[in-house]
Structures are given as C-alpha cells and as structure tokens.
Amino acid sequence: MQAAKALDESVLDNEDMTPRPSVLLFDLGGVLVDFSGVEDLRPLLPEVLDDEALLARWAACPHSLAYGAGQLTTDEFVPLFLRDWRIALEPAVFRTAWQGWVRGWLPGAAALIQELRPQYRLAALSNSNAAHWEQLARLGMLDAFDLALGSHELGVRKPDPDIYRQALRRLAVPAAEVSFFDDSAANVDAARGLGLQAVQVDGPDAVRRHLEAATLI
C-alpha cells in the first residue's frame, strides 16, 4: 500500500514537472544575431529623434511591417521606406546598407549553438524580411538550425499567435516540448499563451544562464 502511494506521488511529481524540451526555438536579432537596426538608421535621418521616439516610430512603420510579413518585395519596400523616413539615399545604396544591418553572431552565440546541437533540435523563428534573410543565408547563419523560419515567409509576424502555430506544425512537436527564447516581452507572452516554454533573454549569455539554471546543459 505504501509502495503504491509512493508510486502515485512520484507520478504526480513528474506530471507537475516542466517537460524537458526536445526543441530550442530562437529569435535571432538581439538573442543570437547582432542586428544594428535603429543604430544604423539614426545617422541617415534628417531629424534627431531620442531613443524612445525612434523605437516607437520603427515599431509602427507600416511599410516595414508589411515587408516583414512578406506583403512587399524588397524592390517595392526600399523606395517606400526611404520616403517614410525622408532618407536622402539612392535605393541601391540604401539596399546595400540595409543588408549590412545583419552583422553576424553576437559574442558567444556560435559556441553556444555548437554546444547545444548534439543535445537538441535547434530552430529559429524571426521577424525578418527578404533582404535580411538573404544576408543571414549568405553568412551561413541559417545553416546552424535544423529549421529556420522567417516572418516574411510565413506571412505573419510575432506576436501574432498564428506564427507560433505554423512553427509548431513545421516542427511537429507539442508546444510544451519547445523552449522559446526572444528579447521581446510581447513575443514571449504570446508564446506562453500557446503553451511554449518561453523565456525573455537579451543575448547568448542570458540563454546560457537559463539553460544552466534549468539543468538543460
């Protein structure tokens, strides 16, 4: 009787435990990838904006949002963006500069991925666009993942719940088996709402600290 009770308690304890993830799903910019974003945009602008105003305008830019959802081609997007922000550059010059906003891995990211690869399936889910995705591919960074998904390919951006549903379908695993890392609180909250183990982080070191604290590495 006591053995049966102990077994029942053990089962309950296991049910209460968070499942060990089989997939680690990463946002890219700000988590693993050095993306300059507004840092490189600021010197191109005709007016001076403080950080709060610049970030708010960036987040609400309609043509950037449409481009990131795959609703505009790069050739369509560039002149619209230049007009929106009153940037005095030729489209071809800006397009080259825009791609260069993807700079490479953040310090420690490549080593972390190398360490995780034998233990987990690794995937990426990023609010991106055709030009930046092309740069990521050119740098060989997408090859680090078993599956890499960009918002421009899926037709929807985080934190829309549909982007997570599409990712889960492609991964073919339950939400509870996915640990998701993003630097946006809104994106993390949306992922948690669908049952993913979602964590807000600000770079590879924060990812590593979480995994070590959870005894996942």
From TrEMBL:
Q: Where is the signal peptide?
A: none
Recite the UniProt keywords alphabetically: Hydrolase
Q: Which InterPro entries does the entry link to?
A: HAD-like_sf, HAD-SF_hydro_IA, HAD_sf
Asked if the Swiss-Prot or TrEMBL record annotates the protein with the keyword DNA damage, the reply is no
Report which gene this protein is encoded by: yihX_1
Looking at the Swiss-Prot or TrEMBL record, what is one Pfam family this protein matches?
A: Hydrolase
Q: Does the keyword Hydrolase apply?
A: yes
The enzyme's E.C. designation:
3.1.3.-
Q: Name one GO molecular function term.
A: hydrolase activity
Which top EC class applies here?
hydrolase
Name the UniProt record assigns to this protein: Alpha-D-glucose-1-phosphate phosphatase YihX
